[in-house]
Specification:
- Helix content is 36%, strand content 25%.
- It is α/β, with parallel strands linked by helices.
- Strand 11 and strand 12 form a beta hairpin.
- The strands form two sheets. The chain has a nine-stranded mixed β-sheet with strand order 6-5-4-7-8-9-10-11-12.
- The chain is built from six helices and twelve strands.
- The protein folds into three domains: 32 residues; 68 residues, Roll (Ubiquitin-like (UB roll)), CATH 3.10.20.310; 135 residues, 3-Layer(aba) Sandwich (Rossmann fold), CATH 3.40.50.
- The chain is elongated, with a radius of gyration of 28 Å.
Length: 242
Protein backbone atom coordinates (compact mmCIF):
# COMPACT_ATOMS: atom_id res chain seq x y z
CA UNK A 1 0.00 0.00 0.00
CA UNK A 2 1.39 3.41 -0.97
CA UNK A 3 1.72 6.30 1.43
CA UNK A 4 -1.05 8.12 -0.45
CA UNK A 5 -3.39 5.15 -0.16
CA UNK A 6 -2.61 4.82 3.57
CA UNK A 7 -3.43 8.46 4.20
CA UNK A 8 -6.65 8.09 2.22
CA UNK A 9 -7.76 5.07 4.30
CA UNK A 10 -7.08 6.94 7.56
CA UNK A 11 -9.10 9.98 6.53
CA UNK A 12 -12.57 8.59 7.48
CA UNK A 13 -11.28 7.59 10.93
CA UNK A 14 -9.71 10.98 11.55
CA UNK A 15 -12.92 12.66 10.41
CA UNK A 16 -14.98 10.52 12.80
CA UNK A 17 -12.66 11.26 15.70
CA UNK A 18 -12.80 15.00 15.00
CA UNK A 19 -16.60 14.87 14.79
CA UNK A 20 -16.91 13.00 18.10
CA UNK A 21 -14.47 15.41 19.74
CA UNK A 22 -16.39 18.38 18.40
CA UNK A 23 -19.70 17.02 19.61
CA UNK A 24 -18.20 16.38 23.06
CA UNK A 25 -16.86 19.94 23.24
CA UNK A 26 -20.21 21.39 22.19
CA UNK A 27 -22.02 19.18 24.72
CA UNK A 28 -19.64 20.31 27.48
CA UNK A 29 -20.18 23.96 26.53
CA UNK A 30 -23.93 23.46 26.55
CA UNK A 31 -23.79 21.63 29.90
CA UNK A 32 -21.65 24.33 31.55
CA UNK A 33 -23.86 27.09 30.16
CA UNK A 34 -27.27 25.60 30.95
CA UNK A 35 -26.96 23.06 33.80
CA UNK A 36 -27.22 24.30 37.39
CA UNK A 37 -27.00 22.48 40.72
CA UNK A 38 -30.55 21.94 41.98
CA UNK A 39 -30.20 18.93 44.27
CA UNK A 40 -27.82 17.38 46.81
CA UNK A 41 -27.59 13.58 46.96
CA UNK A 42 -25.88 11.66 49.76
CA UNK A 43 -25.24 7.95 50.28
CA UNK A 44 -27.02 6.12 53.11
CA UNK A 45 -25.68 7.28 56.49
CA UNK A 46 -25.86 5.93 60.05
CA UNK A 47 -24.69 8.73 62.34
CA UNK A 48 -24.86 11.86 60.19
CA UNK A 49 -28.19 13.43 59.24
CA UNK A 50 -28.88 14.61 55.70
CA UNK A 51 -29.84 18.10 56.90
CA UNK A 52 -26.49 18.40 58.70
CA UNK A 53 -24.67 17.56 55.49
CA UNK A 54 -26.77 19.98 53.46
CA UNK A 55 -26.18 22.81 55.91
CA UNK A 56 -22.43 22.16 56.10
CA UNK A 57 -22.07 21.84 52.32
CA UNK A 58 -23.63 25.29 51.96
CA UNK A 59 -24.16 24.99 48.21
CA UNK A 60 -26.39 27.73 46.76
CA UNK A 61 -29.27 26.40 44.67
CA UNK A 62 -28.87 27.25 41.02
CA UNK A 63 -25.07 27.61 41.04
CA UNK A 64 -23.31 26.49 37.88
CA UNK A 65 -21.03 23.45 38.26
CA UNK A 66 -17.96 25.30 36.99
CA UNK A 67 -18.50 27.93 39.71
CA UNK A 68 -18.53 25.33 42.48
CA UNK A 69 -15.33 24.38 44.32
CA UNK A 70 -15.97 20.72 45.13
CA UNK A 71 -12.85 20.42 47.28
CA UNK A 72 -14.05 23.22 49.56
CA UNK A 73 -17.49 21.62 49.80
CA UNK A 74 -15.91 18.32 50.89
CA UNK A 75 -13.73 20.06 53.47
CA UNK A 76 -16.74 21.81 55.00
CA UNK A 77 -18.67 18.55 55.34
CA UNK A 78 -15.61 16.76 56.77
CA UNK A 79 -15.78 19.11 59.78
CA UNK A 80 -18.86 17.19 61.02
CA UNK A 81 -17.99 14.94 63.97
CA UNK A 82 -18.81 11.61 62.36
CA UNK A 83 -17.55 12.37 58.85
CA UNK A 84 -14.18 10.84 58.02
CA UNK A 85 -13.94 11.43 54.28
CA UNK A 86 -16.00 12.95 51.48
CA UNK A 87 -15.74 12.47 47.72
CA UNK A 88 -17.85 14.75 45.56
CA UNK A 89 -18.84 15.09 41.92
CA UNK A 90 -21.56 16.56 39.72
CA UNK A 91 -23.92 14.10 38.07
CA UNK A 92 -25.04 14.59 34.44
CA UNK A 93 -28.40 16.03 35.58
CA UNK A 94 -26.58 18.64 37.68
CA UNK A 95 -27.12 17.00 41.07
CA UNK A 96 -24.25 17.30 43.52
CA UNK A 97 -23.34 13.82 44.79
CA UNK A 98 -21.47 13.44 48.10
CA UNK A 99 -20.16 10.00 49.02
CA UNK A 100 -19.44 10.11 52.75
CA UNK A 101 -17.36 7.68 54.77
CA UNK A 102 -18.45 7.85 58.41
CA UNK A 103 -16.35 7.31 61.50
CA UNK A 104 -17.24 4.17 63.45
CA UNK A 105 -17.00 4.17 67.27
CA UNK A 106 -14.54 1.56 68.54
CA UNK A 107 -14.87 1.97 72.32
CA UNK A 108 -16.70 3.97 74.96
CA UNK A 109 -14.10 6.12 76.73
CA UNK A 110 -14.78 6.52 80.46
CA UNK A 111 -13.19 9.57 82.12
CA UNK A 112 -14.68 10.03 85.57
CA UNK A 113 -18.32 10.88 84.99
CA UNK A 114 -17.70 11.76 81.33
CA UNK A 115 -18.54 9.39 78.50
CA UNK A 116 -17.48 9.72 74.87
CA UNK A 117 -16.87 7.41 71.93
CA UNK A 118 -13.48 7.03 70.27
CA UNK A 119 -12.74 5.57 66.85
CA UNK A 120 -9.75 3.54 65.62
CA UNK A 121 -7.85 6.74 64.70
CA UNK A 122 -8.25 8.15 68.20
CA UNK A 123 -10.89 10.70 67.19
CA UNK A 124 -13.40 11.34 69.96
CA UNK A 125 -17.06 11.27 68.97
CA UNK A 126 -20.14 12.49 70.85
CA UNK A 127 -22.77 9.98 71.91
CA UNK A 128 -25.85 10.61 69.79
CA UNK A 129 -29.33 9.94 71.13
CA UNK A 130 -30.86 6.86 69.56
CA UNK A 131 -27.58 5.84 67.92
CA UNK A 132 -25.73 4.21 70.79
CA UNK A 133 -23.47 1.18 70.42
CA UNK A 134 -22.62 -1.70 72.74
CA UNK A 135 -18.84 -1.30 72.92
CA UNK A 136 -15.95 -2.22 75.23
CA UNK A 137 -15.25 0.37 77.93
CA UNK A 138 -11.91 2.17 77.62
CA UNK A 139 -10.13 3.66 80.65
CA UNK A 140 -7.03 5.79 81.18
CA UNK A 141 -7.52 8.60 78.64
CA UNK A 142 -8.89 12.14 78.64
CA UNK A 143 -12.40 12.72 77.29
CA UNK A 144 -11.52 16.18 75.94
CA UNK A 145 -12.94 16.03 72.42
CA UNK A 146 -10.39 18.55 71.10
CA UNK A 147 -7.57 16.05 71.65
CA UNK A 148 -7.05 13.13 69.28
CA UNK A 149 -5.50 10.06 70.92
CA UNK A 150 -2.27 9.37 69.06
CA UNK A 151 0.27 8.20 71.64
CA UNK A 152 1.87 4.76 71.54
CA UNK A 153 -0.34 3.33 74.27
CA UNK A 154 -3.54 4.16 72.37
CA UNK A 155 -2.10 2.79 69.12
CA UNK A 156 -1.64 -0.51 70.94
CA UNK A 157 -5.16 -0.40 72.39
CA UNK A 158 -6.64 0.55 69.02
CA UNK A 159 -4.81 -2.29 67.25
CA UNK A 160 -6.05 -4.71 69.89
CA UNK A 161 -9.67 -3.55 69.64
CA UNK A 162 -9.68 -3.64 65.84
CA UNK A 163 -8.33 -7.20 65.89
CA UNK A 164 -10.89 -8.15 68.54
CA UNK A 165 -13.70 -6.70 66.44
CA UNK A 166 -12.49 -8.62 63.40
CA UNK A 167 -12.27 -11.82 65.45
CA UNK A 168 -15.77 -11.37 66.94
CA UNK A 169 -15.13 -13.93 69.69
CA UNK A 170 -12.76 -11.54 71.40
CA UNK A 171 -15.25 -8.73 70.87
CA UNK A 172 -18.05 -10.59 72.64
CA UNK A 173 -15.95 -11.84 75.58
CA UNK A 174 -14.22 -8.55 76.54
CA UNK A 175 -15.91 -5.81 78.52
CA UNK A 176 -13.20 -3.33 79.55
CA UNK A 177 -9.80 -2.30 78.19
CA UNK A 178 -6.91 -0.21 79.47
CA UNK A 179 -3.16 0.10 78.94
CA UNK A 180 -0.49 -0.62 81.54
CA UNK A 181 3.17 0.27 81.05
CA UNK A 182 4.29 -3.13 82.35
CA UNK A 183 1.52 -5.43 81.12
CA UNK A 184 0.58 -3.63 77.90
CA UNK A 185 -3.04 -4.04 76.86
CA UNK A 186 -5.15 -5.26 79.78
CA UNK A 187 -8.77 -6.36 79.42
CA UNK A 188 -11.51 -7.73 81.64
CA UNK A 189 -13.64 -10.64 80.52
CA UNK A 190 -17.43 -10.31 80.38
CA UNK A 191 -17.71 -13.34 82.64
CA UNK A 192 -16.59 -12.69 86.21
CA UNK A 193 -14.31 -9.79 85.20
CA UNK A 194 -11.20 -11.97 84.87
CA UNK A 195 -8.07 -9.93 84.13
CA UNK A 196 -6.63 -10.73 80.70
CA UNK A 197 -3.09 -9.62 79.85
CA UNK A 198 -2.44 -9.19 76.11
CA UNK A 199 0.83 -7.26 76.23
CA UNK A 200 1.97 -5.50 73.07
CA UNK A 201 1.59 -6.40 69.37
CA UNK A 202 0.66 -9.75 67.77
CA UNK A 203 -2.91 -9.34 68.98
CA UNK A 204 -4.43 -11.50 66.27
CA UNK A 205 -2.43 -14.51 67.48
CA UNK A 206 -3.06 -13.71 71.14
CA UNK A 207 -6.81 -13.42 70.57
CA UNK A 208 -6.74 -16.79 68.83
CA UNK A 209 -4.92 -18.17 71.89
CA UNK A 210 -7.63 -16.69 74.12
CA UNK A 211 -10.29 -18.33 71.97
CA UNK A 212 -8.53 -21.70 72.10
CA UNK A 213 -7.97 -21.39 75.86
CA UNK A 214 -11.62 -20.54 76.40
CA UNK A 215 -12.79 -23.52 74.36
CA UNK A 216 -10.37 -26.03 75.91
CA UNK A 217 -10.16 -24.84 79.52
CA UNK A 218 -12.85 -22.35 80.48
CA UNK A 219 -15.72 -24.34 78.97
CA UNK A 220 -14.66 -27.48 80.82
CA UNK A 221 -13.17 -26.13 84.03
CA UNK A 222 -15.19 -22.94 84.37
CA UNK A 223 -14.00 -19.39 84.93
CA UNK A 224 -15.12 -18.85 88.54
CA UNK A 225 -11.76 -19.80 90.06
CA UNK A 226 -9.65 -17.77 87.65
CA UNK A 227 -8.23 -14.41 88.64
CA UNK A 228 -5.91 -13.69 85.74
CA UNK A 229 -5.07 -15.11 82.32
CA UNK A 230 -1.71 -14.06 80.89
CA UNK A 231 -1.71 -14.14 77.08
CA UNK A 232 1.36 -11.98 76.51
CA UNK A 233 3.38 -14.89 75.18
CA UNK A 234 2.35 -16.27 71.80
CA UNK A 235 3.33 -19.88 72.65
CA UNK A 236 1.83 -20.29 76.13
CA UNK A 237 -1.01 -19.21 78.40
CA UNK A 238 -0.35 -18.67 82.11
CA UNK A 239 -3.21 -18.51 84.60
CA UNK A 240 -3.50 -17.29 88.18
CA UNK A 241 -6.32 -18.73 90.24
CA UNK A 242 -8.03 -17.52 93.39
Amino acid sequence: MSKKQANTSLLPWLTAVLMVTGIAVLAAMYWNRNVTVQDLKVNELTFVEYEEVKESAAVPTGIKPDSLNLEEVALRVEKLDYVQKVTSYIEPDGSLRLNITEREPLALLIDGSNRIYVDAQGVKLPILEGKTRNLPLLYGYSSNQDDTLQDESFLQVSDFLVQARNDRFGWTTISEVAFDENDGVVALSHENGVKLLFGRNNFKTKLQNWKAFYAQVVKTKGIDSMQQVDLRFTNQVVTREI
